Amino acid sequence: MSDMFTNATPNFSFEIFPPKGAGKLSSIFETVDALASLHPDLISVTYGAGGSSRDNTIEIASTIQKRYMLPAVAHLTCVGSTLEQTDTLLCELKEKGVRTILALRGDRRADSDYQDGYFKHASELVAHIKKHYDFHVLGACYPEKHPEAPSLEEDIRHLKEKVDAGVDALVTQLFLDNDDFYRFRDKARAAGVNVPIVAGIMPITVPVMLEKVVSMCGAKIPPAVQRFVDAYGHNAEAVREAGVAYATQQIADLLAAGVDGIHIYSMNKAGITRQIAQNIHGILYSLRVKRT
């Protein structure tokens, strides 16, 4: 099982992303500096579209483990990659000491030069990693179904295939209505998905994030979220504080419902992430003590 779940549960983690283009890595390590003091169970590092930031992903994940002595998760997509390219990356991750991978298909590009890769689905990538390497492997899931899936039930059938291929734990795409997560979790468990399911939370702290949420994963916008964005849209500080309060409330409810873990999509905003972590610190760590 992943390092994520060898310690107390519920587990608590963050996601960061590499700087775009030729951005300096020093900026991301300032974010890590601020987050590391919160003692997360791990920090995951995203992988740019089409592999655009893959070198930075490996470097950042490796540094998190060596400099901060924290478990790191490197995202790895297979879309558009050959088997040789994928194996090269896996060998580099192993050499750099990264022990856990979030295995993803990735988003297909629409340009005419694009060629599909060796692996068509994340489940195939997971099976390959588990057969040939000694990594812990995490997988992604969608509480409101993958945008390409015809139904939640069909999506969960494919999710079960990914778990059967060897996924150690699942991390959800962001969602804003906890009832969607509970419905998904119940259906997944009934379908035989028996690995830990970690809830992915993204705080909505600027109005434009609502458009990104819908475009990224099709997540629905609860009336309560739309209401504070509409009411405070002219006041950046008010939107930020309302978004932090909403995410805090979401997490408190998830913890009360026995969630396996919380994964905050930080968007590299260390201040907001720290504020939420401090808000739920007492609840989280009292539960961790009780369950150890």
Show the helix and strand layout:
Blueprint: E1 11-16, H1 25-36, E2 42-45, H2 54-68, E3 72-77, H3 83-95, E4 100-104, H4 122-132, E5 136-141, H5 152-164, E6 169-172, H6 178-190, E7 197-201, H7 208-217, H8 223-232, H9 236-256, E8 261-265, H10 270-291
Helix pairs in contact: 1-2, 1-10, 4-5, 8-9, 9-10
Question: What is the overall shape?
Answer: globular
Please, how many domains?
1
Question: The biggest beta sheet, please?
Answer: 8 strands, parallel, barrel
Identify the CATH architecture.
Answer: Alpha-Beta Barrel
Termini gap: 17 Å
**How is the CATH topology named?**
TIM Barrel
Extract low-pLDDT stretches: none
Q: CATH top level?
A: Alpha Beta
Mean pLDDT: 89
N-to-C order of helices and strands: EHEHEHEHEHEHEHHHEH
Properties at a glance:
292 residues; alpha/beta; TIM Barrel; 10 helices; 8 strands; globular
Describe this structure in words.
The model has no long low-confidence stretch (mean pLDDT 89). The protein is 48% helix and 14% strand. The chain has a single domain, classed as TIM Barrel, CATH 3.20.20.220. It is α/β, with parallel strands linked by helices. The chain has ten helices and eight strands. The chain has an eight-stranded parallel beta barrel with strand order 1-2-3-4-5-6-7-8, surrounded by six helices. Helix 1 packs parallel to helix 10, helix 8 runs antiparallel to helix 9 and helix 9 runs parallel beside helix 10.
